[in-house]
Amino acid sequence: MKRSTDRIRTTHTGSLPRPPDVFAVMRTIAAGKPYDHQAYTAALTKHVADIVKKQVDAGIDVVNDGEVSKISFQHYLTERLEGFEARVPPGGLGPPTGPIGLDGEDAKLFPDYYANVLKNNPFTDVVPVAPRVCVGPIRYIGQKQIARDIANLKAAMTTAGAEEGFLPASVPVPDAMTNEYYKTYEEYFTAYGDAMRVEYQAILDAGLLLQIDFPRLVSGWDGRKGKTLAEYRKWAEGRIELLNHALRGFPEDRIRFHTCYGVNMGPRVSDLQLEAIADLIFKIKAGAYSFEAANPRHEHEWRVPAKVKVPDGKILIPGMVTHSNPMIEHPETVADRIERWANAAGRENLLVGNDCGFQSTAGNTEIPITIAWAKLHALGEGACIASKRLWS
Length: 392
What we know:
With 392 residues, this protein is an alpha/beta fold. The protein has one domain: TIM Barrel (Alpha-Beta Barrel). It is built from 13 helices and 11 strands. It has helices at 20-30, 37-58, 73-80, 105-109, 111-119, 143-160, 185-205, 216-219, 229-246, 278-281, 304-307, 331-345, 369-390, and strands spanning 9-10, 62-63, 81-86, 132-140, 164-170, 178-179, 209-213, 255-258, 288-291, 315-321, 351-354. The strands form 2 sheets. An 8-stranded parallel β-sheet has the order 1-11-10-9-8-7-5-2. Helix 11 (304-307) links the parallel strand 9 (288-291) and strand 10. Helix 2 (37-58) crosses helix 6 (143-160) and helix 6 (143-160) packs parallel to helix 7. It is globular, with a radius of gyration of 20 Å.
């Protein structure tokens, strides 16, 4: 993993708005209807090439495929893991709510805001995924899909001249999926993690960086249902142990960890603050840690390195532009944020990105594609300004 030795290097967390023609086929696939496999594969290759070039043009150093092939992390797991079956709850799936968390603390504090969001639901077009239950041995079956994603990204990087690339993968902790097969949850979690290791190994063997996405590690605090901070930290420690077991033996300096707060646009008063859990996050066997630091609820997090020791040799990836509102950050503001973080953590320990993906679930219209790209350009321009200040 390259470091910021002569300038501030840039990246982002992964998802970008899906091209309309790709999303149309995704809806067809999710509905179980026939589609032109060859044309869809060609469209993915074309769009990944375009997306990687746009990232490079925006000034992004460490690029990815925009998660073009993933409808969502929930859905991509249905294609890549065997041993689960869908269980549609009585009454159906109901209206999609995205990451809002209507049973969480934020929704209780600001019910009028969340009611208004649902009246103008930006998640209307997302592809719903029924809850899944483990009913048999878990096995990774996504070899063709991950090979396709790797090939598309590497080819696009070569053409665009990208320096470094990463692929995001889901965390090996199946909290959201009930187990009816394994005798103990320890067996269940171990089997799940071992299956996901196949994907992790493929990404690393391809010479790409692996990013583990685990929003729930901190976003779960919003729906804690009476847990104290000590109880929540104990739960988080258990999940981190599971994650580290799944990452055993992999090179830490090739792994990035990303977490965020689940809720996108909203008051966000109930967010857990980074200081409350940073020491646990730094125990994760990764070389870099990505988190929110650009929105008004977390811009103060630049003070955390002065309060919580960052392990030697680790890289921080704080967000410098946010997915949580549509306003485009001014490059000078981005540069100011970068400068604060560089002074707090050391410029060589800094890689800068965005708070979270601009479309973690395909079809979410909160951040239109033009705004997502404008924010990445602001990130790239801000990093150039900050680099001149820090290396002058």
